[in-house]
Design a protein that fits this description.
13-stranded antiparallel sheet; single chain; two-stranded antiparallel ribbon; 23% helix; globular; alpha+beta
């Protein structure tokens, strides 16, 4: 039998050892080391996959301890993303606190804006407009938080967190989840207002998608628990089916966010979907909305006029007295 060249033998040992978590030289890697080595590139694949997606579904928000009464919101959601361009349309179908409305948020590298359509009206009205991504990207991530569940912790992607010196993986262990062997990663993070710790369960056999997570904060004190469901797959990556996020204070769930995905497609969203014209507003005729609403502006003007009249009246009363002196 002809012996294998050393280079070929090294390649073969590397391939065989990868399944056992070993290096080419036979050194056994700990599960934590495997996570540190394999999870970041898997997260990049997940972000690229979900970076060109359309998600339609239904969402709800339950605030059990809100004041003056608990708040219940139901809405439909249409989320579209093309790399750095994001668009979210949320139509509130019921809200115990305020009238239902539809709001659209768009963030692109060139332009960001928000539009609103109140219940019973057919046209969108421009609400805000600014060059560049502005703060709309953060608002979209907050309002469509559960759409980012496969690869995020709250409003931050796990990939970005791993790059931060304030974030550290403390341990990794094998656990059973969704009828399969997954990996539980415990972590710590130094936050601006205190210490955050938690764990997340990821599935290495299914593109390293996130299946469960729990985050505990000291300031303010709360625990956030998330479960993520998938159905079907594409290119070896599970497709998001639904998610649930519950905030607990003192062991009691006080705020619950839920998402049920009706349709998810992976596609290159046309650039036209991220324009004002997509909402029936002309790009050429769009102007920046006033910082102060017209009603409030008129009230301020009336108040200034009233103050001017009072000042002029007081000055007129003082002039005779000065002349007499």
């Amino acid at each position: 039998m002809t012996p294998l060249p050393f280079g070929s033998l090294l390649i073969l040992l590397t391939a065989l050892g990868a399944a056992r978590g070993e290096t080419a030289l036979g050194q056994v890697l700990s599960l934590k080391d495997q996570v540190s080595r394999e999870y970041p590139p898997a997260l990049e694949r997940l972000e690229n996959f979900y970076g060109r997606v359309c998600i339609q579904g239904k969402g709800s928000y339950r605030a059990e301890r809100a004041k003056p009464t608990k708040r219940l919101i139901d809405y439909t959601l249409d989320f579209r993303r093309k790399r750095d361009s994001m668009r979210l349309v949320r139509e509130v179908t019921s809200d115990t606190w305020q009238p239902a409305q539809t709001r659209g948020l768009v963030s692109t590298p060139r332009l960001s804006f928000s539009v609103v359509r109140h219940s019973g009206t057919g046209d969108y009205a421009l609400e805000s407009l600014s060059p560049g991504p502005s703060g709309q990207a953060d608002q979209i991530r907050f309002d469509a938080l559960l759409c980012f569940s496969p690869y995020s912790l709250g409003d931050s992607s796990v990939r970005d967190l791993l790059k931060s010196p304030a974030f550290a993986i403390k341990d990794a262990s094998r656990v059973a989840c969704a009828g399969r062997e997954c990996v539980k990663i415990t972590f710590e993070r130094t936050a601006s207002r205190g210490f955050v710790s938690g764990w997340m369960i990821v599935d290495p056999q299914a593109g390293w998608v996130l299946r469960e997570r729990e985050v505990t904060s000291q300031d303010p004190p709360f625990t956030a628990r998330t479960t993520v469901e998938y159905e079907g797959q594409q290119d070896g990556i599970p497709l998001l089916r639904g998610a649930r996020l519950a905030f607990e204070y003192g062991g009691v769930a006080t705020e619950i966010h839920e998402l049920k995905v009706d349709k998810l497609t992976v596609e290159d969203v046309p650039d036209e979907e991220f324009t004002l014209a997509a909402f029936g507003i002309s790009d050429a005729g769009a102007t920046r909305p006033p910082l102060i609403p017209p009603g409030l502006a008129y009230s301020l003007l009336a108040a200034l006029v009233a103050v001017g009249i009072v000042v002029a009246w007081r000055l007129a009363r003082r002039r005779p007295q000065r002349g007499a002196a």
